[in-house]
Amino acid sequence: MHQLFRLVLGQKDLSRAGDLFSLDDSEIEDSLTEALEQIKIISSSSDYQTNNNDQAVVEICITRITTAIRETESIEKHAKALVGLWDSCLEHNLRPFGKDEDTPHAKIASDIMSCILQNYNRPPVMALAIPIAVKFLHRGNKELCRNMSNYLSLAAITKADLLADHTEVIVKSILQGMVQKLSLGTCFRRHLKVFSSICGLWEERPRVLEAS
């Protein structure tokens, strides 16, 4: 791992975190997976939700990492670590505090989501991401639900077979009425858009599986 990442994440040094943006993307690209794994350790600590310093360090580092991934087009190389950190957010509370104030782990999930799911046209990335993405539909966070549904709609259009195994989860999310708690049906309409893209595929699932 690059020495500056090692310093910032190892010592949780907020004063040096901004210096990461002075480095070229190519200079830190090989360090991104290891940095993501270190962030996962930090964000999983028992006091993370109350530690403002650690949260700020993680937020800055994730911004730097996702920027470098986009600029170097290295999402497939780092997708496993990125999705692993994303998945770890599901182990924590994602429901907003007070009026639309995201929890620390909801912020991480949101920051990572676009970096992963903007690559909806890359099947290897989506194969890792979609099983995790659908789980966020059940976690009671309006903004995450809305954005996740948008990205899943795009994934369903370009590579519907990757969503076929998750039709039941998406339908259950609709039927449980969770969306009544989320923006008066906005998520409901997006869920239906995803569902309508794959419902025909579900009926033809044996042929899809044979083809794959």
TrEMBL record:
Signal peptide: none
Membrane disposition: Peripheral membrane protein
GO biological process: regulation of signal transduction
Keywords of this entry: Membrane
Subcellular location as annotated: Endomembrane system
One GO CC annotation: endomembrane system
Major localization class: membrane
Annotated protein name in UniProt: Ventricular zone expressed PH domain containing 1
